[in-house]
Amino acid sequence: MSVDPMAYETQFFGFTPQTCMLRVYVAFQDYLFEMMLVVEGVMLKKLDGIPGCKISPSQIRKCTEKFLLFMKEHFDKLFAKMEEVLLQLVLNIPKNVLLPEDRVQEQYPYSKEEFQALQDELQQLQQQCRAEAAAEQALRAELEEQKAVKAELEKILQCFDELENICREHGAGNFKESFALLTQSSKKLQDVLKDVEEKSKKMKQHDQLM
């Protein structure tokens, strides 16, 4: 059997030419064995009808095996020639023939170095795409967070608007001024409370010394 991989032929036929030839060889060999069994059966019937025949079935089987070996040797030689012819003239694609799916390589030829450069560029583009996808996901998460903060701020502004409306209804004037005044008063109260706490601590210390 041929050891040439014949990859281009395999691409075209969908099977390796060597596999095809092997199957043909096995089919011929099986047919040869079956034919020998038929011949042997006919000979046994013919001899069985001859009176006084001293040839036994075992002798016929030995003769059949010898003849089968003789036929197989000649068959192998003939098949080797047939295989060579079929692989060269029937199952072989000439070097100057290009398959339709490979014509694009003829139009756009490239070397191994150019192919490797394209592979490297493709890998870089894939990395950039992954990085951009991650950045887009982070931006989406930030946008969702900003939407949530905006919603909370709108609630606070609405609350201030409602408080200002209440202040106007009760004649409290501008809400912002009232809120600023309230803040100042609260700070004064905190200062007074802090002063009272300090005086209280001093009085407790004085009582302990007495």
Automatic annotation (TrEMBL):
PANTHER family referenced in this protein's UniProt entry, alphabetically: PROTEIN MIS12 HOMOLOG (PTHR14527)
Record keywords, A-Z: Cell cycle, Cell division, Centromere, Chromosome, Coiled coil, Kinetochore, Mitosis
Natural source organism: Edolisoma coerulescens
Coiled coil, from the record: 108-156
Gene Ontology CC: one annotated term: nucleus
Similarity field: Belongs to the mis12 family.
Location within or outside the cell: Chromosome, Centromere, Kinetochore
Pfam families listed in its UniProt record: Mis12
Entry superkingdom: Eukaryota
InterPro entries for the chain: Centromere_Mis12
Name under which the protein is recorded: Protein MIS12 homolog
